[in-house]
């Protein structure tokens, strides 16, 4: 790819606020909205990035500040762009700097909005004013280097644009080129600016244990909404994701800006409408209790912040993010492996695991078509409850007198691979590890060590702790034929101290801990390339694009009630692909709500994502086994479409809707699968006609019922246009009913 510089260098010749910069037509005639490459056009000090249906432009103004110019639907080549001109401003109330939409604002010069970077120098100076220094382009990435007006604090901003989706990845590398350490008190990946407007609605995800990812909306108004985690990890309180839609945008239409942060530690996304009505979205490390000591010569890379824009409504915003995750983020991207159907022992046996019991479950699991058998918590150390054993990663000899080998061999003989649960970052006080190394946990000298689920957090920032954790996992994987780790993490931080280092370095723990978790995952994956990993954290407490880069799937919630899951999955898929969304079929009545649901309903709910079974199979009837065999076989046929296709949320289960429906369409539009659910019929009303989306209107699709009944007059073959406009009538009456219908192009 070429990056021609065909427009004259015009940075020094800015004429005024009304001047427009036009260079695209001369620059790159290939930059048509339909092509599949990304283009980065540099004309003077205006930078324009184009890919898919998106244009992003930024430039250097006459003061040397880097400012946002445009972010929105793709412009035509040669379209004029507003010149990067610092708007007039600056009086006794607002500094001139506040009127500039700075891509990366240092805290200084009288900045009153969310800064991207705040630094304290040893001499007490806390003023930072960043100005353009240089830029470079490598492939799909533009780097722009900024420097403080006086001191050699150098920031390299990265802008990488994805050709397939037009989603940009932004990150900043902060270098201390002074001769003394500095403390970085706040650092974001960058700030995104939306066009000035009064018709925006913010959508975000919030939740708690067993109720993750509820969808909330509020108008964007003067002031700030902060989405965050202060817990040391991603958390369930908010998902690190946002969407801002035009008020008239819906699931299927309209303009939406959206983004997700790739960081598994404390994070913040601040959405702010300032006094000049600029809409700013700033995301990165959570500034609360932040203070990263940066030695001379050292650098700090911020998390990556991915963001995109679409005119196709909330549904298309999600599909773009899903596509990015499948083709760019996941460890096996762009060819992510389909998730196997797994069995997990947790809800069946709790901590009461042993060779005979697990073998019995494995035999049942194999008989219904399960491909991966996962033994959950309880197999190691003195782990008979959550009060002991965490940290001691040796097989419990009472439960497994001959080690894990006999169970693993049996699982393999049954045609499945074997997975196991671990929670490597934690320790119970009642463990050999804690007795030997009480100083290995996060703590503040002389203060109580607050327990959560009877456990403490190991200080992974310490090199010796990192080495221990890596060693224990490496040994486990080297000595046993393990194909899968369920990597759990069951508490938030308290007393996040690191007494072994100087007081001014202790807060580095917020970054160094997470970097070391990522480092361990990377190293394990390198050494054991066939091992797959699930990120679990008391349910969906560690789901973000950072952990997703190193794990193959995630656990959305400990709530496995099939009805509740419809809502949780609807929220989850706002940001994350069904391809990583693990969903188990568990027992009825559900342990969460005591609700009774048919096995078919429970299966269909779980088949919306990556199917797993978590029920006590030893209690299943012959009828249950037959139903499971049939639906698992059907799932294997449609899973590629479900996991790697495009998701259309046809009817949301949110806000107490009596019915809901989703549809997955394979990328080549050859296959689609519809899942439809009914909570309760009332007053004899028919189930509403479902109109599909995303099919090839001219192609002909044959309908295939996986579960449920279609209205008598339903054709067996009809055009995509027919299914999308006439729709399909599913016959459903009663409580907690479900249907699944496949469509295959002829
Ligand atoms: C929390 C997880 O979310 C559960 O699925 C289970 O693995 C337990 N931890 C085990 O302690």
Ranges with pLDDT <50 over ≥5 residues? 1-34
- For the terminal residues, how far apart are their CA atoms? 39 Å
Quaternary assembly: single chain
Helix content, binned percent = 10-25%
Rounded mean pLDDT score: 94
Cα radius of gyration in angstroms: 27 Å
**How large is the count of helical segments?**
13
Identify the bound ligands: (2R,3S,4R,5S)-2-(hydroxymethyl)piperidine-3,4,5-triol
β-strand amount: 25-35%
Shape: globular
Largest sheet: 10 strands, antiparallel
Count of DSSP E strands? 40
Structural class call reads alpha+beta
Write the layout of secondary structure elements.
Layout lengths: L19 E3 L1 H4 L11 E5 L2 E6 L2 E7 L5 E8 L6 E3 L34 E4 L9 E9 L2 E8 L4 E9 L6 E9 L5 E13 L5 E9 L2 E9 L3 E7 L11 E6 L9 E7 L4 E7 L5 E7 L6 E3 L4 E3 L2 E7 L2 H17 L12 E3 L1 H4 L5 H14 L3 E4 L29 H9 L3 E6 L3 E2 L4 H5 L19 E2 L5 H17 L4 E4 L21 H19 L4 E4 L9 H4 L4 E2 L7 H14 L6 E4 L13 H9 L2 E4 L8 H23 L1 E6 L7 E7 L5 E10 L19 E8 L1 E2 L6 E3 H6 L4 E2 L3 E11 L1
Parallel strand pairs: 23-24, 23-32, 24-25, 25-28, 28-29, 29-30, 31-32
Antiparallel strand pairs: 1-6, 2-3, 3-4, 4-5, 7-12, 8-9, 9-10, 10-11, 11-21, 11-22, 12-19, 12-20, 13-14, 13-16, 15-18, 16-17, 17-22, 18-19, 26-27, 33-34, 34-35, 35-40, 36-38, 36-40, 37-39
Helix pairs in contact: 4-5, 7-8, 10-11, 11-12
């Amino acid at each position: 790819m070429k990056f021609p510089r065909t427009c004259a260098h015009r940075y020094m010749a800015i004429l005024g606020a009304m001047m427009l910069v036009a260079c695209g037509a001369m620059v790159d005639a290939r930059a048509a909205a339909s092509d599949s490459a990304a283009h980065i056009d540099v004309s003077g000090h205006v930078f324009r990035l184009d890919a898919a249906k998106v244009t992003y432009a930024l430039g250097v103004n006459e003061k040397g500040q880097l400012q946002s110019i445009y972010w929105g639907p793709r412009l035509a080549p040669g379209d004029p762009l507003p010149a990067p001109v610092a708007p007039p401003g600056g009086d006794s109330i607002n500094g001139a700097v506040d009127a500039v939409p700075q891509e990366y604002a240092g805290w200084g010069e009288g900045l009153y909005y969310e800064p991207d970077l705040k630094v304290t120098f040893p001499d007490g100076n806390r003023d930072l004013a960043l100005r353009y220094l240089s830029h470079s382009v490598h492939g799909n990435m533009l780097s722009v280097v900024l420097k403080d007006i006086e001191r050699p604090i150098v920031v390299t901003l990265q802008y990488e644009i994805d050709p397939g989706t037009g989603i940009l990845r932004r990150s900043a590398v902060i270098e201390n080129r002074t001769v003394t350490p500095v403390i970085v008190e706040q650092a974001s990946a960058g700030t995104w600016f939306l066009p000035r407007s009064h018709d925006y609605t913010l959508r975000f995800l919030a939740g708690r244990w067993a109720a993750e990812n509820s969808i909330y909306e509020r108008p964007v108004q003067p002031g700030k909404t902060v989405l965050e985690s202060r817990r040391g990890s991603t958390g369930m309180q908010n998902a690190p994701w946002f969407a801002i839609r035009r008020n008239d945008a819906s699931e299927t239409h309209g303009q939406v800006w959206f983004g997700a942060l790739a960081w598994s530690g404390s994070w913040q996304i601040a959405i702010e409408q300032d006094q000049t009505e600029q809409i700013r979205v700033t995301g990165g490390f959570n500034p609360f209790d932040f203070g990263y000591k940066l030695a001379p010569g050292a650098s700090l890379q911020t998390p990556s912040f991915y963001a995109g824009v679409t005119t196709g409504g909330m549904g298309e915003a999600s599909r773009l993010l899903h596509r990015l995750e499948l083709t760019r983020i996941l460890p096996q991207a762009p060819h992510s492996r389909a998730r196997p159907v797994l069995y997990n022992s947790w809800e069946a046996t709790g901590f009461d695991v042993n060779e005979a019991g697990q073998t019995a479950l494995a035999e049942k699991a194999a008989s219904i078509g399960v491909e991966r058998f996962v033994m959950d918590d309880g197999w190691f150390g003195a782990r008979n409850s959550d009060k002991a054993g965490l940290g001691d990663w040796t097989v419990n000899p009472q439960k497994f007198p001959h080690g894990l080998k006999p169970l693993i061999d049996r699982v393999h003989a049954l045609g499945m691979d074997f997975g196991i649960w671990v929670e490597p970052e934690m320790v119970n006080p009642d463990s050999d590890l804690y007795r030997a190394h009480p100083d290995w946990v996060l703590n503040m000298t002389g203060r109580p060590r607050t327990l959560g689920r009877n456990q403490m957090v190991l200080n992974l920032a310490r090199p010796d702790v990192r080495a221990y954790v890596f060693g224990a996992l490496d040994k486990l994987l080297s000595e046993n034929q393990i194909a899968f780790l369920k990597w759990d993490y069951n508490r938030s931080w308290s007393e996040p101290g690191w007494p072994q280092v100087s007081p001014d370095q202790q807060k580095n723990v917020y970054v160094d801990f997470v970097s070391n978790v990522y480092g361990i995952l990377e190293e394990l994956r390198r050494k054991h390339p066939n091992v797959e990993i699930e990120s679990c954290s008391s349910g969906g407490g560690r789901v973000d694009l950072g952990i997703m880069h190193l794990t193959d799937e995630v656990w959305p919630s400990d709530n496995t009630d099939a009805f509740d899951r419809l809502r949780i999955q609807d929220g989850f898929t706002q940001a994350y692909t069904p391809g990583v969304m693990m969903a188990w079929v568990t027992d009825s009545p559900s342990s969460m709500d005591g609700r009774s649901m048919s096995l078919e309903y429970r299966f269909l709910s779980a088949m919306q994502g990556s199917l797993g079974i978590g029920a006590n199979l030893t209690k299943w009837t012959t009828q249950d086994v037959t139903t499971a065999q049939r639906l698992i076989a059907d799932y294997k046929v449609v899973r590629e479409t479900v996991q790697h296709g495009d998701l259309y949320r046809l009817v949301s289960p949110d806000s107490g809707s009596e019915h809901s429906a989703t549809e997955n369409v394979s990328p080549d539009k050859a296959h689609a699968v519809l899942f439809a659910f009914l909570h309760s019929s009332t007053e004899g009303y028919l189930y509403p006609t479902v109109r599909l989306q995303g099919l090839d209107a001219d192609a002909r699709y044959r309908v295939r019922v996986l579960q449920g009944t279609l209205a008598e007059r339903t054709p067996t073959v009809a055009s995509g246009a027919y299914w999308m406009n006439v729709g399909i009538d599913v016959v459903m009456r009663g409580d907690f009913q479900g249907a699944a219908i496949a469509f295959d192009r002829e």
